[in-house]
Structures
1.
Amino acid sequence: MRTHARRTIAGAAIAAFALIAAACGSGDDGGAIEGPTITIGSANFSENALVAEIYAQALEAEGYQVERKLNIGSREIYAPALEAGELDLIPEYIGTMLTYLGGTASPDSAETHAALQVAWESAGIDVLDYAPAQDKNGFVVTKATADELGLTKVSDLAAHNGTLVLGGPPECPEREFCLKGLEDVYGLSFTEFRPLDVGGPITVAALEGDEIQVGLLFTSDGTIIAKDFVLLEDDKALQPAENLAPAVRAEIIEAYGDKFAETLQQVSSKLTTPELTAMNKFVGIDGKDPEAVAAEWLKAIGVTE
Amino acid sequence: MVDEEGGGMIEFFGEVAAWFGDSANWFGTSGILNRLREHIQITAAATAVSTIMAIPPAVWLAHRRIGGTLVVAVVNIGRAIPSFAIVVLFLPISIRLGLGIGFWPTFLALLFLAIPPMFTNAYTGVAGVDPDLVEASRGMGMTDREVLLKVETPMASPVILAAVRVAAVQVVATATLGALVGWGGLGRFIVDGFAVRDSVVVFAGALLVASLAIVTEVALGAVERRVVPSTLRSRSEHVESIVA
Amino acid sequence: MQAAGGFFSWEWVVNHLDDIWDRTVQHLLLTAIAVGVGVVISLALSIIALRFRWTYAPITWFTGILYTIPSLALFAFLVPVTGLSVLTAEIGLVSYTLLILIRNMVAGIDGVPPATVESARGMGYTGRGLFFAVELPLALPVIIAGVRIASVTTIGLVTITALIGQGGLGFFILRGLNLFYSPIGTTQIIVGTVVSVALAVAVDLALVGVERLATPWSTRRAAA
């Protein structure tokens, strides 16, 4: 009786031990990385949301816990949110961000990036390595308008001061790289400024319907090619370097260390302007899903499989 | 944006007052006067067109006692449709129709949202006229048309006028959303203010919109009281509206 | 323009069922909190209005003004004070429920037949007991009718909170606005709209069910 009981108990103990060992050894959490959830935010236009999505998926593939808060709003809304800790990472454009913080941006990417890092440090934000991809403000007219008025460069618009309507994002009149700069640097004046959207479909529709003659679109926007618009050359170099770079809260970098920055750098280094423009076209024109486009690209560059 | 209690708030209201005091904010295409004009014009137009399109059919159908169940269904579904969604939906529709951005998507959305409640209110008003009264009129020898024009419509007028008033206020509210689809109007201050996080402009815009809505409610209410005989006033209490 | 000329992409819907679900849940939560808080506040105000009749007019006047203020404006008033938060959204949403709830609560209680109240008093019910055990249950059909209207209205308004960073299903509508040249954009607008309406209809029906369960003695149906 006793021997039998001991064997049964021993057997049960061995079985239990085996089960526990199996559970421990299986590594079922798939290499999930312990640490604070990374909240990734973006501005309220599709390119920024797309790049944010790319970073999010790249981090998730490495095992980080990611939460997305995309399409938040303009810089005045998401930048304070980042500094306050409501967001942990946003993809930023180095030139405009530096100016927003009170610095002076130049067409030199390295210089602008270094200056931005310094400017944002005190708020506890690290700006990681920048991508080759740039997305600047571009002033665009329809082909018909360009032909009719003989426009190839922004300074050509001066000959038509007071006759054209400019359309762009609501914050345009106050931005150095938008209407304010056009007035100060190029000496332009428009009959009216129409607040539309941030280089999005409403601006495109307004250009097509001739409700505005000059519109602000982004230089990496696939629509420009798709709609046969003319991107006016920035001959007085109003636009500074606008490379994309991930702005991350220093606390997150501290929590995760170098490997985190490396993961993002791997992605950023492969993001060029043509790649970005192509992806923008897939999403904005061809109607592909941003999540799918991001996933496909990450696979293509070898970050995920 | 408001740093501390008391002092911060007073300072903020001071800034709002200063914004209104700055004459530059009143004139020009993006000034208060122009936006107010745009807003009032679209409200008047949308309310007028909705009235013409909704009321006569409603009155006629109610007179014939046709379509009662449809009316109930429309009321329930109509309340459930988010006005924000309709304004946004009409943007691609308007573009595909070649009508462009801004005014037309806003105007069409306003019609879409105002006509159903106006229709159901007018219908309910006429259908709610005391059947004995209608019987008696017929008994007195009135023709069908006379009953409609001389009995049912006047008796239903409080409800119909209330319906117009409610629709006008709703249109003022929904027109605020037109700023999202490239239109102007008073919503511009709120939307643009949000975009640059200028809470003074946002607040000022909200004041303007709220004031216009309240003024519209009060003004049309006063007109109603003038026109509707006191004996019929209690009928106009439960008129449907959509909050926008 | 999109080659196929389509405006709806089932593929997107299928790929985003979990997103749609999450947003629907968020939408319902925002609604539930707003209507819940609205009911509590309205109940308190209604009791005051019933007890002190002269307060009914000012209360309806004030909640009427809140109701008249366009929702975007109301949220705009709140943002400088309470930020782009759930609180801002909820304060706004609650405000729009008050007028209809208070009106229906007061009308409901007033509508309880005096004879019934008398009998209850005769049986020994007084004051708070009379109110909570007799009048309130009998007023339930009219009150729930008010809750139905408040809920459906709130579900529509929650979409607007997307503009202040919240949104539930309004998120899809706003996103679609940024992408409407692509079928993905128009799909999102349609999905946001249709699911929101479906949600409103479902909640409405559910509340009708609640009313039937809560008032088994009632053979009369309350007017909507």
Note: Chain B has a mean pLDDT of 87.
2.
Amino acid sequence: MTPEALLLLALIVPLAGAVPIVLLDRAPNLREAATLITAVLLFLVNIALASDVLGGARPEFVLSSFIPGAPIMLGAEPLGVIFGLIASGLWIVTSVYSIGYMRGKKEANQTRFYTFFAIALASTMGVAYAGNLISLFVFYEALSLSTYPLVTHHGNEEARRGGRTYLGVLLSTSIAFFLFGVLWVWHEAGTVAFMAGGVFSAPPDTGIIAAMLALFVFGIGKAGVMPFHRWLPAAMVAPTPVSALLHAVAVVKAGVFSVVKVTYYTFGIDLLSSTGASEVFLWVAAATIVIASIIALRQDNLKRRLAYSTVSQLSYIVLAAMLANSAGIVGGALHIASHAFGKITLFFCAGAIYVASSKTTVSQLKGIGRAMPWTMTFFTIGAISIIGLPPTAGFVSKWYILQGVIDAGQPAMAGVLIVSTLLSAAYLLPIVYTAFFQAPEASGAPTHGEAPLSILLALGAAVALTFLMFFFAQPAIEIAAQIVGGV
Amino acid sequence: MIAQFPALQVVLPLIAAPLCIVLRRGALPWFITLVVSWAALAMAGTLLDQVADGSQISYALGGWMAPLGIEYRVDTLNAFMLVIVAGTSSIVLPFAYRSVIREIPEDRHYLFYGGYLLMLTGLLGMAITGDAFNVFVFIEISSLSSYAMIAMGRDRRALSAAFTYLVMGTVGATFFLIGVGLIYAVTGTLNMADLAQRLPPLYESRAVLAAFAFISAGLLLKLALFPLHLWLPNAYTYAPSVVTAFLAATATKVAIYLLLRFGYTVFGADFVFDIVPASEVLLALAIAGTVIASTVAIFQADVKRLLAYSSVAQIGYIILGVSYANVTGLTASLVHIFNHAVTKGALFLVMGCMAYAVGACRVESFAGLGKRMPMTMAAFVIGGLSLIGVPLTAGFVSKWYLVLGAIERGWWPVAILVLATSLLAVAYVWRVVEVAYFRDPPADAPEVSDPPLSLIVPTWVLTGACVYFGIETSLPVGFAEQAAQLLMGGGS
């Protein structure tokens, strides 16, 4: 199959998959089979596309001529391939997990849930393979809207309030800043195309570059840079599979992915490093990293603690991009992957605990390691990866980010990375301690056992990925290095 | 035959109107109106196709040559308007059949369709004529018929709404007539092309200045630019559903067309933007209109009224584009005329579905309809997204050009304001969406379901158009750009 056809399939497969899901409303087993088959197909499409792109192909496909000079088009390059592979691969894992979770909790409206999940994945593919700035914006908005019914799934007052914050923050930042940035770039450079090395043939003033960059860093609200991070904790009202795949992987990664993409393909790292326009955003990202970690320390609700941890970890990637050098871009791309594996593990565990025991806060978890040894072991491994210790994926990406910090000559940022590593240990390890070493409050036999098998299987797969990316880091690093022309 | 299309465009609905009164039995008036409307669309489409290369068609009515006789002159701009008016009417009429049966007593159906045809005649005539006085005649035909149409609303408040519109509309038309009289007095001609040649030497004349003031004030009243919009919310709220959908999509738009025609073609851009501070005045009014009307819309308890205030805000956007006085801004205005016609047409048809199935359009009567009337509510969501300007809907394209025009003009705060006011639209649209999808209906709510297909299909044709023209923009943008260049080129 030609790379162009694969590109189109990446968008069409999940959309087409939504059709049987709707039609099989009354046959849940077949419906879930449809989700799984779609997810597997999508992953295969992404793998085939990845091998073409690594072979040097740069396919493009124009979907609509849209506005004269600004078509909606798809295009594949290494960074998009990384994101596409992660999102589609973890969709399979999450689908297995969802079956256990949604049935375990006897959730209502499951058909709607799986349908919008598929549409959200199609939007994610659109973001990953957006061929120019305007297409990126279009799919970014589609992702916000298609995930809204998932966030508000429970339909109660709390879900509605969460949904309002979610949509309110994401839509207002994207319309007021992101879109404005796109239009400004179009006005300044005369193009919305993505080009390695940036689109500005005649560089504007440093002040103008910094102002434009600000519109993207803050306008891409999905990247969770403070003060526009509040939608993420609000989105935690969603069922856990949504939090796991969308709010630890697809949606938030769509945000940081867009930041990296714009940094590299619209501004160009040479322009940013020679003018120093991105330096101030290093500090913005650093502040987000530290403040979000401190807030995470104080959260008792497990999912909220993980959400603030995500806010903090996302800004690692923003920081890496703002370093504006090759190692930073590679480190950012790798961190998109490693954080995805680590954080999805932690969310899966939070959901597993909720399904098995209906517990949602850290303080309720005393001694739960005895009843759920597998789940809590997986949790520990995920935590180690988020902290960034070997032998897990988190170590690999942090290593490259640190390399980028040194290349950029920013010792203060190295300090920030060290502090935040300590902070992340401080908000994650106590959970492990509580679970394994504190005695349960109620004496006697535990009232519940392990989570359902499909949940544990999904967890095992996520943990395996965390290890794989450490022990077999080379392929991942090679793809990431291709973004910057091979290091 | 095709050579006679410019005249037939107007004459056909004009003749069909009394025909409806004579053949008043059963569905016949509706059927005549439908056929005439579709014929008008076919003719408008042919005319647009003929002038699409930038040429003009001049048609001497009754064979009397201009400037003695009345000249109809068709170029890209007014052919585009003809298509919008006839197109909206052609989509609304299939909807009208059942909606009118539900909302209007049977013994008045023939009057309704007779009036409707006159309204159509007036709007098409305003768009096509090249004679300043003839414009006034058609304004009166369309206005008088629309007062009658609005008064046919079920609610008794429709009468006072129609009366207010009558008073304000008459003031507007009179102002317009005074202005036309003044320029006739100084130039001795009523033909627009002639006027365009004779006015430049008279730019310093106080009569011309006064004429411009009267004409633009009159038109601004008709197009309901803030703060001259007071007639609009009640008129839209209490008129029969079909009338609201048709008027909201076309009536104010044709008035905007006239403002552009008089501003650019008759008076000339040099006069309007250099001698008269039209740019600044329009900018201030447009911004005040969008911000205030959008804010007021958020607090409306009746969704039809909410959409009416939103219309006032959207008219502000269209005028904003005009105030930029550059090609991009003008393109934005013309594109938004088209896109807003499609979007508001769709949304007011949804209100028609509500009136048919539920009998009310209050916010709380939407409770639980997301499940009970899924097709209707899905149309509302998509129309609402287009109103906000979300990408892949028509509204986004307008917003794109509107912001781009502001940046080109160097008006950064305006660019930011356009984007910021879309957030107000998020607020008023989402209020309704939340009630429809999350609030349970009260226990005593009657069973409701989607209205019959003859209502759903036209609604979805327009809703589909919101999405189609958000993805494939070449048609409206192409014509709008051409028309904008025509106007700007003709003015300087």
Note: The longest strand of chain B covers residues 57-60.
